[in-house]
Amino acid sequence: MKKMVCAAALATCGAAMAITDAEIEKLIGEMTLEEKVGQLVQLGSAGKEGGPLSQDATGVALPADVAEMVRKGEVGSLIGACGVTNFNAFQRIAMNEARVKIPLMVGHDMIHGVMTQAPIPLALACAWDEKTWQDCGRLIAVESPAKGCNWTFTPMVDMCRDPRWGRIAEGPGQDPYLGGKMGAAMVKGIQSKAGALPVAACIKHFAAYGGAEAGRDYNTVEMSESTFRNVYLPPFKAGVEAGALTVMPAFNTLNGVPCSVNKWLLTDILRDHLAFKGFTISDWCGVSECELDHHGMAETHAGLVELAMDAGMDQDMMAGLYRKELVQLVKDGKVPMAQVDRSVRNILQVKNALGLWENPYIDEAKLKAQIDLAAHARQARAIAAKCCVLLKNEKDALPLKPGVKVALVGPGAEDCVSISGTWSAYIENKFEMTLPEGLRGAGVTFTYTPGYDWQKGRADAKALKAAAKEADVVVALFGQKGTDSGEGWSVLDITLPKVQLEALNVLKRTKKPLVAVLINGRPLAIPELAEKADAILEAWCPGTSGGGAIADVLTGKVNPEGRLTTEFPVSVGQLPLYYNRLRTGRPSDVSAPYCSCYRDGPHQALYPFGYGLGYATFAYANELVKVEGEGNQRKVVLSCDVTNTGKVAGVETVQAYTRQMVGVESRPIRELRGWQKVALAPGETKCVTIEVPVAQLGYWLKDRFVPAAGPMRAWITRDSVSGKTLEFRL
Ligand code: GLC
Question: Which pLDDT does position 91 carry in this prediction?
């Protein structure tokens, strides 16, 4: 029965199922042990560096070692987009020359786009819009086959509460509900079959990787099972329910056991609790990182393979340990054939869900017909503008007035790598990517004077003053290079470097209106900017149409509607910092003698979760809460009137939060339960209603789900620190 369920579940992702489960079972029955193990192996598509090439039947030059392994059925998937020609050539070998015809998958990290880069995921999250997220996934689905790839290792749905961790850039931020919505939408977009060949998504990194102690990448993760199930697991649950075909276990240990060999995680939670039906692919050499002088889980590689197979790791990315050890382990009876068959079945079912037996090849004519790079550039620009977050806007600094003369200063204005950000596999479909191109395209009169570096040296005060003197307004870039976040980029210091603060002071002294634009892949501690700039636009790493997007917001062509999904601290000393924290037993007012606060600074965020401004202003009134329905059908209905009290049309993101006042464990002071974006003309009022199923309000107490009950509070408001407190009972 389970086998049939697998195929049916995988079929829900909308893929054609070319062969039946019975045919898959027959195939498994025909495969030799070596061929089965081959399916559990992922190796690089480029093969051994500098290795010989071989001509395939059609004259395509392939890495000879990879071609031979495919021909022998010794590899189930390749990592590294290999281009359409090589993809189809490898596939022809797999389907025409190998003894058993099993198509390949080729995976790559198309995280926020391919030729066209949308903003980094942490920026995408700020759109608070499922269609935007799905559109980004669809963009990846359409462009990935053009690079010879039908599998992407995205979306990353790791919750993160500590921006010292560089990979915060790759994820949805710190809220499980929003993170789940974003992950599910991206899975649906990626697996929409919109491209020349269906593409598989991969939710990662399973799990709790973003909880690395002290924000140090790959570091230990220790947390209660309740916190794991209430905060870090829900986005994976949402991704699995959206039909994600693959899951990538994380590098880190979770409460002492590395995820790659963690049976509780990969079997009890992923398979039994989440009912995941696809296959697990290790992270890069994740299995071998469990060896003696790393995680120390076994004395030998064979011991690691036993553990990983028993835990439920289906495919080994690049470690080569399954390739080296597994056949003998099965022959010695140390790994049951049933475990090998289980993993082979998971992999074949995913390949079948992708319709690969029906059509294993990338149709180049279809590719050309589908990929409209100009349209994709326009789409990326609209997404990037929507993801900008206006953090401050005083003295009417923004939008820029028509005809105004701008002095653009600072690093990164023409730095496409920074503008595109981490995991930009390609930066090709550039359209007004740089800021000068964007401002020029918007018809803005400006000069550009770098004036200071991201980090090095001193600010060129003379040049900055001269530029400001000739201008009506200064637009100054601050932040971090796009490569200074992402994998392996944890940092101790998230303040602006001295040279940037020096430039800020020089510019402040010119007394010209000062608009700061942030280019960065993580929240930064920017109290000086908050004090001295008249306006601050968080543009993140906006992608290959980033310059135009920023110009659209600066000129008011686009009214910024982005809202933060993580918190900006005042100081790194506050970290970890997150809005859905528990109350303490003490006052948090520093005037109280024994308060839960800091004596040398605030404990609140500089800019909190859910925060963002726009060019319009909004007023809330008539906030109401009621419980409707009976039993399990009960729902909490939150409503309010929202009025645009500004002079221009705008979009407000109305957010619903609740708090359970009494729990078996203490519950967070707020938890996001839903949101609604509402477009309002100047002076217009709309009643906004957000319904929250009562069933959604419960929480996990270790492995027991506790329905919400007793006194509750709710807010329907603009961000995680505002709003009228509403009381109700369940
Ligand atoms: C990396 C990352 C993972 C990525 C994989 C393949 O180390 O942890 O996110 O998908 O390797 O590149």
Answer: 97
pLDDT at 443 over 60: yes
* Domain extent listing, the chain: 381-574, 618-729
Model confidence at 123, in pLDDT bands (50, 70, 90)?
Answer: very high
Residue 720 burial (10 A CB sphere; 0-12, 13-18, 19+): buried
Query: How far apart are the CA of 723 and the centre of ligand 1, in A?
Result: 40
Nearest CA to ligand 1 atom 12: 109
Q: 3-class DSSP state for residue 514?
A: strand
Of the candidates 129, 283, 316, 534, the residue annotated as catalytic is 283
How much is the average pLDDT of 579-605? 93
Q: What pLDDT band is residue 3 in, cutting at 50, 70 and 90?
A: very low
Tokens 């980029």 sit on residue: 489
C-alpha separations of 621 from 24, 181, 566, 643 in Å: 60, 28, 26, 8
In the reported structure, the alpha carbon of residue 404 is separated from the centroid of ligand 1 by a whole-number distance in angstroms of 45
For a mutational test of ligand 1's pocket, the pick from 149, 153, 206, 209, i.e. the residue with the most ligand atoms closer than 8 A to its C-beta, is: 153
Question: To which H or E segment does residue 379 belong?
Answer: helix 373-387
Tell me the per-residue pLDDT of 239-292, one tens digit each, with 9 for 90 and over: 999 999 999 999 999 999 999 999 999 999 999 999 999 999 999 999 999 999
Per-residue tokens: 229: 């199930």
CA of 57 to the centre of ligand 1 (A): 33
CA distance 359 to 614: 48
pLDDT at 9 over 70: no
Of the CATH numbers 2.60.40.10, 2.40.37.10, 3.30.450.20, 3.40.50.150, which one belongs to the domain with range 618-729?
2.60.40.10
Contact between residue 178 and residue 565 where contact means Cβ atoms under 8 Å apart: yes
Backbone Cα Rg of the chain: 26
For residues 403 and 445, give the distance between their C-alpha atoms in angstroms, rounded to a whole number: 7
Give the nearest ligand 1 atom to 156 CA. Answer: 9
What is the token pair recorded at 161? 């509460």
673 CB-contact burial (10 Å; exposed 0-12 / middle 13-18 / buried 19+): buried
User: Which CATH superfamily includes the segment(s) 381-574?
Assistant: Glycoside hydrolase family 3 C-terminal domain (3.40.50.1700)
pLDDT tens, residue by residue, 390-409 = 999 999 999 999 999 999 99
Residue nearest to atom 7 of ligand 1 (CA): 284
How confident is residue 590, by pLDDT bands cut at 50, 70 and 90?
confident
- The SS3 call for residue 719 is coil
Cβ of 217 closer than 6 Å to ligand 1, yes or no, is no
User: Which of 43, 105, 109, 112 is the pocket-test mutation for ligand 1 (most atoms within 8 Å of CB)?
Assistant: 109
Q: Output the DSSP codes for 177-210.
A: HHHHHHHHHHHHHHTT--SSS--B-EEEEETTGG
How far, in whole angstroms, is CA 154 from its chain's centroid? Answer: 7
Ligand 1 in reach of 284 Cβ (< 6 A): yes
Rounded to whole angstroms, how far apart are CA atoms 369 and 691? 42
Which residue in the block uniquely carries the two structure tokens 């800021």?
435
Confidence of residue 55 (pLDDT cuts 50, 70, 90): confident
**Gap between the terminal Cα atoms of the chain:** 40
Number of C-alpha atoms within 13 angstroms, CB side, residue 502?
15
Nearest to 571 by CA among 538, 604, 539, 599: 604
